[in-house]
Every structure is written in structure tokens, then in C-alpha cells.
Amino acid sequence: MPIDVADIPKAELHCHLDGILDPAMLRELREEGIDLSVDEGALEAAYPVRDFESFFAWGASHASLDGRLDLYQHIARHHIQRLRAQTVVYAELFVASGELSLDPSLAVDQLAAFREAVTTYGAGEIQVELLIAWGRNRGLDRAQQICTRNLRLFDAGLICGVSLAGPEVGFPVAPLAPVFDRYHAAGVPIQIHAVEWCGPESAWDALAHGHPSRLGHGTHVLDDPRLVETLLARRIHVEMCPTSNLCTGSIARIEDHPIRRALDAGMDVSVATDDPGAFRCSMTSEHALLAERFGFTRDELLRLGANAVRARFQPTLRVAPAEALALA
Ligand SMILES: [Zn+2]
């Protein structure tokens, strides 16, 4: 008897604002009279995303949106509507660093307007919090500038944490350690994308130099039992994204995904879409996948949501459904 996952309360910690747009959303916005100046044919032609290169090509198909937080606000509105329809009650969204000015004062103004709009779209049914994500390949000097700006955003209460994303191969965390020391000293919660494209050594590098309390992906962490022990001992939460990992080629077959083994090993894990527009997935489809292909029960799916709410970076829960899930 398949489980109906539609009404299970859900929480998502790993979704990129610039990974959400899909052709249906583009058309819906156009019908509202909002023109994103994105070529629908080019966006359609970017599918299917099936490896790292096609994922970047998908992003390039609407690179005209880069730096246009005003346009991304419309995408966020539709995204939050969709999350509400999927009974997602808590979500953290990664805003790419490049959407904002590097000037701290300007960035505060830009993000304050976006932040206020996002709260309105949540309508008391879902709490949406913002993080800033920046790329591993940006180099130390740029990462320091981004940090100075991000610390102002954090002090202003506009973001609840930061995320290191971008190409993993050839860009270890170690050279960025001085930046992570600054975030850590300021009390800013840190998430690092790791063990998606590299082996367990990527997580060891992140743990040694980045002060993360959460890892994104962790696709190959189970290859290293000592790493699993360390993640358990340090209570590091891992945000797992099965469909994303299949679409980008991080795993060859969905059966290879470790989320079932991670849960059974007692790890603190949750499930997320990463880039639902690119991978044509949703929180509901991820839950259905886990039920159908990995035998997750309703209680286990509920536990993933509760794990996510408890691993959140925003200490304050503001909506009743998210408070209820935290206690599940
Ligand atoms: Zn990601």
C-alpha cells in the first residue's frame, strides 16, 4: 500500500533561489504580466539536466536574471506558493551572493525588501529563512569581501547563516579558513556543500577548516565509517538531495543513494530538492521517491522533516506548523 506523502508536514534546508525557475513558472509569470526577459525556448532546450555540464548550461539559459533580486522576488513568490501546496512548513533558501551588492549598506536595503516580501508570501503557513551562498572558486580576497557584507546582513537579522557552494574539485575549504574563522567568531551558522563531487576527504577538509554545523549532499560519506562516527559525534546534520545527485551524475543510479543507509546508521539527515527547476523535482516528489524506492515509512518521512526543523539556522520559530513539526 503506497503512502500518501502529500499531506506530510515537510521542511527543506537546501534549495537555491537561482535553481527554481522552470518553463511552467515562466509562463505563469508571463500570464500575470511579469516579463523576466528569459527566453522560454532556451530554457526548454536546457533539459534534461543529466550531468555537471548540462546543469551549468541550464543555469546559463537564464543568466540574464543574475543580480536581479527584484525579478527573483516573483520567482520566490511562486516557489513559496508551491511549497505551501506541498505542506512544507519551514524552508531555508540560498540566495546567491552575486544577487546582492558587495556594498554592505546597499545589500542591506536590497535584501530587506526581499525579506519582507518573502514573509508576506509565507502567510503564516510556512517560515522561509534566507542564507547567502557563495562559490568555492571565488578565491580568498573575494570571499573576505563577501564575508564583510554577509556579517552586516546577519547583524541586520536578514540572513540566518551562510553556505559554501560551487565547484568542489580543486577548490578545498582550507585556503578559505580565515573567512570561516570570521563567520564562526561572529556566531554565524555555516553550511558547506561537500562530498558531492569528491570523496570523504572533502568532508574532512570542511570539518577541519570551515566550522560547519551542516553539510550539503554528503553523497559519499558512508564510504568512510570513521567519518560517519565523527558526524554523529559532532551532531552534524546532512542535507541529502537524491534527485539532484542522480541528475548531476554524482551517483549513477538512484539505488546508489545513501539516504536510507544514513538514516539506518542513526545519522541526522533530511531531504531536499537543491534546484527543483533544474531537476524537475519537488519536496513531494522527493518524499514519494523515498517511500517508493527506499521503503521510507510515514514516520520516517516525518522524522526527516523534524530533523530539518531542529537543524535549522534560524533559532526563532515564527509559524505554528513549523513549531508542531519540530516536536514531531
Ligand atoms: Zn546546493
UniProtKB/TrEMBL annotation:
Molecular function terms, GO-annotated: adenosine deaminase activity; metal ion binding
**EC number, as in UniProt:** 3.5.4.4
Co-factor(s):
Zn(2+)
Q: Does the keyword Zinc apply?
A: yes
Q: In the UniProt record, which is one GO cellular component term?
A: cytosol
Which biological process terms from the Gene Ontology are attached to this UniProt entry?
Answer: adenosine catabolic process; hypoxanthine salvage; inosine biosynthetic process
Task: Extract the Gene3D superfamilies matched here.
Answer: Metal-dependent hydrolases (3.20.20.140)
Q: What class of enzyme is it?
A: hydrolase
The source's domain of life comes to Bacteria
Q: Which UniProt keywords apply?
A: Hydrolase, Metal-binding, Zinc
Residue span, Adenosine deaminase domain = 9-315
Q: Which family does it belong to?
A: Belongs to the metallo-dependent hydrolases superfamily. Adenosine and AMP deaminases family.
Name of the featured protein: adenosine deaminase
Q: Which organism is it from?
A: uncultured Chloroflexota bacterium
